[in-house]
Design a protein that fits this description.
By secondary structure, the protein is of the alpha/beta class. 58% of the residues lie in helices and 10% in strands.
């Protein structure tokens, strides 16, 4: 049905001539207010349907993004070329998926609301008498359409699109970073975890000191002792910051680091040794509670994954950053421009 400029209504042309004539006769007998009521009801339903379609499109977009996360997670976990960035990339994907799941729940909740509004509008259109100024906007409390917001759907869609753009940029960044790290792993400056796992507790401290030296630090203490008060290795960064590290080595890799070592380090590193940067280095992991304690008290936890990135791939955990990876890549005449021209590792 179309409304002409003069307010009259031109009914939809039906295939059945008799029905078409009957519909025209009915509409011709309607008052302007009755026509307005019919048009308003129809418009409200159409708006509600379009809002619902927006949310449905968002769910489709979220499903596509989730499928990409699944595909990349599988590829990252099984492709050797991704090994150097696997932990960071998978953590990013998990966080991205958490956000997508929240957006999906929001979209589905709005679709349920749209369904209720459409149902209410349709029932009201069927039941309401056609008379002067009778339309849903005049109903007590206003039209159910007031419960819907097209703007909310638009904002949600923009969030998902922005997340998709950020995801693409992040994956491209991980691709390039993996190439850089793998290049470092082929240099003489790289130290494999197998080398570290085969050493002794004393030589583990020595390895830690060497890695700090590789990052340009000046070593003040290479090994701890019976009265070291939690400080096994002490160094000064190129920027003049004092680093105090406690080293915990074990051949039992599945065992976690005892939380008391974090507590000890927190009580002595800054107070007794004047540390600017405090850390615990291990070839193992720690409990979630211990890691939370470390984060709360600004203790860097260089666990097994972080240690591998540092030792094998040249990625310093120091807040000021290390120069080992840059120096090594310069040594093999590998620059950023050439890396940017390489094909991505996984697609």
């Amino acid at each position: 049905m179309k409304v002409n400029m003069n307010g009259t209504v031109r009914p939809t042309k039906l295939g059945d001539k008799v029905l078409n004539k009957t519909l025209g006769q009915v509409i011709a007998r309607l008052s302007p207010d009755a026509v307005q009521a019919i048009v308003l009801r129809h418009a409200e339903i159409e708006v509600a349907i379009k809002v619902r379609q927006r949310w449905l499109a968002q769910i489709k977009s979220i499903a596509d993004s989730s499928a990409s996360n699944v595909a990349y997670s599988s590829g990252i976990s099984t492709t050797p070329a991704w090994a150097s960035v696997a932990d960071e990339a998978l953590a990013y994907i998990r966080n991205d998926q958490d956000q997508l799941d929240k957006e999906d729940l929001l979209a589905r909740a709005h679709i349920l609301l749209c369904d209720k509004v459409i149902s209410a509008l349709t029932e009201a259109s069927a039941d309401a008498p056609v008379g002067p100024a009778v339309h849903l906007g005049d109903a007590p409390g206003g039209s159910p359409l007031r419960l819907l917001s097209a703007a909310a759907a638009i904002r949600a869609d923009r969030r998902v699109r922005a997340a998709d753009d950020a995801w693409s940029s992040a994956m491209e960044g991980f691709d390039k970073e993996a190439v850089i790290r793998n290049a470092f792993a082929s240099t003489s400056g790289s130290v494999k975890l197998s080398q570290i796992d085969s050493c002794s507790p004393d030589s583990f401290e020595e390895w830690t000191a060497r890695l700090l030296e590789r990052d340009g630090c000046k070593i003040l203490r290479r090994r701890g002792g019976s009265n070291d008060q939690g400080a096994d290795v002490i160094a000064v960064t190129p920027g003049g910051l004092r680093v105090v590290l406690q080293c915990k080595f074990s051949t039992k890799l599945r065992h976690t680091v005892d939380p008391r070592y974090f507590h000890e380090l927190n009580g002595t590193a800054r107070q007794e040794h004047g540390a600017d940067i405090v850390g615990l280095v291990t070839n193992r992991t720690a409990s979630t509670a211990a890691q939370d304690f470390a984060t709360k008290h600004r203790i860097h936890f260089i666990n097994r994954p972080v240690l591998q990135r540092w030792a094998t791939y040249g990625v310093s955990w120091l807040p000021s950053g290390g120069q080992a990876i840059v120096a090594a890549l310069d040594g093999v005449a590998r620059d950023r421009a050439s890396l940017d021209n390489q094909q991505p590792l996984h697609h």
